[in-house]
Amino acid sequence: MVGGIVDADVATYCLRLGDDALVLSQRLAEWSARSPQLEEDVALMNVALDLLGQARNLLTLAGDREGQGRSEDDLAMLREETDFLNAQIVELENGDFGRTMARQLLVAAYSLPLWQALTSSTDADLAGIAGKAVKEVEYHLDHARSWVVRLGDGTEESHRRVQQGLDDVWPYTCELFETDGVLQRLVERGVAADPAAIEPRWRATVDDALAEATLTVPETSWRPTGGRRGRHTEALGYLLAEMQHLHRSHPGARW
Amino acid sequence: MSEFRAEGGHGAVPTSGVPADGGGRAGSQPLWEVFVRSRRGLSHTHVGSLHAPDAHMALRNARDLYTRRQEGVSIWVVRASDVVASSPDEKDAFFDPAGDKPYRHPTFYEVPEGVKNL
Prior knowledge:
Chain A is mainly α. Helices cover 64% and strands 0% of the residues of chain A. In chain A, helix 1 (8-29) packs antiparallel against helix 2 (38-66).
């Protein structure tokens, strides 16, 4: 994977994708030993570990294209909050199981068409990562969709909770489809996926799932933003403190 | 609690058969036996069991619990209550008569070279 080609735009793009995967993985890991049942505990940790694997590949590639010799560990464990470029939706607190699953649905429904598009990226390394990620995310979507339908079309209590979770998280989806100079240049080069092409596919998947789940599609005029430029909600700092604590306390420690 | 529907359209949350002492949520869901085919040409083999509210979820749980290290290419899940098993009381009548009939074993054939799963 290491090609030694310094490319700041690709490095930034890989950091964004890698931070999305890393932060969501860390969030899901919080469910370990707390899931509603043992089977679900394993399922969620499988998803979390898939995402961690994606993050490792993406951060390694980001470090390579950045050309400053930073490893995946350096990027994951030694950057500050304002250096993280994940979308804010992945850093939000889990809330209850309904909210966690609502977020999983919204993020997986975005990730699947994203990775599918990236399998034909002109950057061969990124396309390789995408090829592996597509199969994983396909299952993440199936898993989240099953739960959202089950909870939405379940009891009044489960319906209420998953609808509330959906309403809480929904405004943050706007950020997933934002574009900027970096992204525009990469889309023109055929490296990155065009968010404008992904959004309708995301929306179709989400609408279909929510209809089956008897849930209401939320509306928002509030469009939180900033994650891609290192501005985050207060939730991220606490997450990073927990995630980075061990590495920072014992620099260079190995498993 | 009385306003809750007994069960949702997808059998979401069981509201009957839940132990009053809260003795574990898994206990309120049916048990499923899991069979995995490790590769083409072999039979499905029993690998264990799990709890799930319905077949859809049982299959997904089985995927996550029993094939996470590439153990299989196909999964069956069967409700444990649908399995008809021989009784330990019948053990003698069922199995002992086969004990002294060595001619039923294909031990008198040479296994051709290169055949692995006979």
